[in-house]
Amino acid sequence: MANILIFDSGMGGLSVYRELSHTLDGHQYLYLFDNAYFPYGELSESCLVARVVELFRSFVSQHSVDIAVIACNTASTHVLPALRECLSIPVVGVVPAIKPAAEYSRQQQTTDKPAHIGLLATPGTVSRAYTAELIQSFAADLQVSMLGTTELVTMAEDKLAGQTVDLQRLQQILASWTSEQGPDTLVLGCTHFPLLAAEIGQCLPQVKLIDSGAAIARRVSHLLLALPDVQQARTKQQQGRLFCTAATKKALQQARAFSKEGFGELNCFVP
Ligand code: DGL
Question: With DSSP H G I counted as helix, E B as strand and the rest as coil, what are the percentages for the chain, rounded to 5?
Answer without folding.
Answer: 50, 20, 30
